[in-house]
Amino acid sequence: MTAPLVDRQSVIAKTRPYSRIAVVGAGAWGTALAAVARRAGRDVTIWGRDPEVVRSLNEENRNNRYLPEIDLPSGMKATTDLGEALHGAEAVMLVTPSHTVRDISRAVAGHLEEKTAIALCAKGIEAGTGRLLANVASAEMPGHPVGAISGPTFAHETAKAYPTAVTVAFDFTHEDRLSPFESAAARFALSLSSETFRPYISDDLTGVEIGGAVKNVIAIACGMMTGAGFAENTRAALIARGMDEMKALAEALGGRRETITGLSGAGDLTLTCSSRTSRNMSLGIQLGQGMARENCFEGRPVVVEGEVNSVSVTDLARRMDVAMPICEAVWQILHGGADLRATFAHLWSQPIMGEPKALDIVIDHPSGRTAIEDFAGVFA
Fold first, then answer.
1. I need a surface site. Which of 72, 76, 240, 265 has the fewest CB within 10 A?
2. Which range marks the domain in which residue 263 is found?
């Protein structure tokens, strides 16, 4: 029998997990990731703004506001003092909304020890600048490796220790190429690994971030069509063509198309577009049913990342001259005042194109204005 090329035990020995991890953000996803790290044997401290959330984490091993009735592993510490949370941390997970990444990175920077690894756990593109979030964080925290954790995850399932897989992505330096087992990506992946949480390692940070940002916008589109009464054919088409839009933007920015077929692209897109648990899908469904935006979520001020990202994603695509018709349709409806029915009718009547990337063909669609208006009327 041929001996294995790599001795598994020797590989594990070469990769050292981070002993102490700080989690910045005590919302549902931050708490779930803290639980993951604790179950993997790490020393974990969570920072949160809400004193009551911090109290319940410390005294009850629960987050009564964001993950009620879920018992969390014992031994986690929580604090409202950012410096205390970050003191001695070898690695940090930033788990705050995408629009806060610059400010929170700036606040965190002054408390970090040299070369502390940072993993962003928000998904999006900075509005106005078009920068990916890792680029934003790196600008505020120079000298620290910055990556991302992304994949098909719902916080409540992860917190309950349901089997979950994610991608841990960092740009690899020359030193990382020479010693990949000592890279921040490998160390983070091992630090979070347990019987129920399985990370995969990627060096395509751009591709992973684009997948996470764009999937939220596509999920709103799927929700809109579902809410309007259409079914699985329509949703499957939007998922498949939405993934193609992801690939095009990732490739234009230097990412790899194959990354989009992985957990952070196809995996996350499929989950988000298949469940009303997703706020993005849920918003789309309510809008598709004809509900005014201000009345969605029973009038509560719910932040929906895809609604925010639809602006930054389409703005970046326009700058890069990348066609993203589904994302454009969502932007037109959410922010351009376009009629939902007419917008999707026009989307379905765009010129006929070749599906393989190598096939360059465009044919005018035979549907005339009357046919498009008739199709739009199906939504009524």
1. 240
2. 207-340
